Amino acid sequence: MTPELFFALAGFAFVSSITPGPNNLMLMASGANYGLWRTVPHGLGVSIGFGVMILLVGMGLAQVFASVPWSKPVLAVLSVGYLLFLAWKIANAAPPERTAATGRPMTFLQAAAFQWVNPKAWTMALTAITLYASGGVWSVALVALVFSVINLPCIFSWSALGREMRRFLTSPGRLRAFNWTMAALLVASLWPSVAPLL
User: Closest Cα partner for 118 from 186, 42, 43, 198?
Assistant: First the structure.
C-alpha cells in the first residue's frame, strides 16, 4: 500500500468512525447511563468486532452475499428490527442509581456480534475493502488493523461524552429526555442505509 493510499484509508477510517451512527449513539447512551469504565467492554467489542468483520468481508463473505440476491433485504430487515429493539432499550434505560444495581451495559460479545446487523458497519466494511484493499490477505489485514486502531479512540470519545453529560442528567426528566433523544437518533441513523433498499 502506498503512503498516499494509507493516509487516505486512515482519513476514511477516522471520519467514518467519529461520525454519528448506531455504535456511537449507543456508546454515548451507555456512557451516560453506566459510566465510562462499565462501557469499556462494549467499546472493545465494537472495535475488535468490526476489525474481524472487515477481515471476513475482505476474505470473500461479500461475494457470498452478492451471489444470493435476497440476502441483502433479509439482512436489512433483521438489522432494522434489532436496532429498533436496542432503541427501545435505550429509551427505557433506568436512571444511573438504579442502573448500578440492576442494569448492565452491552457486553464485549454482544457488541462484536452487533456489527453484523449494523447497516453503517456493513457500509464502512464494504467501502473500505473495495477502495483500499488491493487484494490478498495482508492487504485486507492492514485495512482491518488501521480501522481497529483508529476506531478505538473515536468510539471511546463518544462514551466519554456520554459520561460527561451524566452530571447534567441528574433529574429523571432530563435523563428520560436524553434517552428518548438517543433512541430517536439511533432510529434516524438507519435511514441512509435502509432508504436505497426501499
Answer: 186
